[in-house]
Amino acid sequence: MASAQPALDAAREAVDKLDKSAMTEMRAMPSPPAVVVRAMRATLILLRGERRSSELSWEGCKRALSKLDAFIRELKDLDATTLPTERLARARPLTEAADFDPDDVARRSFAAAAMARWCRAVVHYRDAFTEAEPLMRQLAEAEASRAAADRDAAAAQGRAAEAAARVNETRIDFARATASKAAAEAEAGALRAKLDVAARL
After folding, report:
1. Could you tell me if residue 187 is inside a domain?
2. Which domain holds residue 121?
3. pLDDT number for residue 136
4. What's the CA gap between 19 and 35, in Å, rounded?
């Protein structure tokens, strides 16, 4: 996960730097290079799960760019951790193509390069998340178990403290009873002594 985060941060930075003029310039291309079209196709597959050929044609890509503010907002808001694996499987052949390198794409279109960078980063991040998810789940379970054990230990300590308090109270009661018994025995001894004296008179 940590190794993928810089790529995702770079993709977000690329999207943040997108301006309407670059997007408009790309949208205005009548017959763009194939890699520009593929960058937009991969973006639409990951972003919206598009599968219709009409939506993945260049005309469909241009329609997707018709509301630039909303489109850029979608790019920024996508949660890569919940991306369906079906979208990844369909986008991967595009993003792993040799000519899909963002630096190469930038020579054709800055906006398309940003899309290519975003697509690769999203796929990379989702792959890393999928790999880390079981470990994260195990960690969460271990932490929950530890928290439960801590609660049990605290409860046991509480019960032990209560028991110790009860033992202490019992000791105090026993000491009082012993003192009372000794006092009673002393008083009885004194009375017997008096009776003995009286009997001799």
Report:
1. no
2. 5-141
3. 53
4. 20
Q: Which residues of 155-185 are buried (b: 16+ CB within 10 A; e: fewer)?
A: eeeeeeeeeeeeeeeeeeeeeeeeeeeeeee
Using one digit for the tens of pLDDT, what is the confidence trace for 84-100?
999 999 999 999 999 99
Contacts of 109 (CB under 8 A, 6+ apart): 22, 25, 26, 29, 32, 33, 36, 39
pLDDT at 28 (0 to 100) = 94
> Residue 41 is encoded by which pair of tokens?
């196709």
Query: With bands split at pLDDT 50, 70 and 90, how would you rate the model's confidence at 141?
Result: low
- Within 13 Å of residue 70, how many CA atoms lie on the same side as its CB? 6
In a domain, 191, yes or no: no
How many other C-beta atoms can be found within 10 angstroms of the C-beta atom of residue 82? 8
Number of domains forming the structure of the chain: 1
Q: What is the pTM of this model?
A: 0.65
DSSP 8-state code for residue 41: H
- C-alpha neighbours within 13 Å on the C-beta side of residue 146: 6
The residue whose two tokens read 């205005």 is: 28
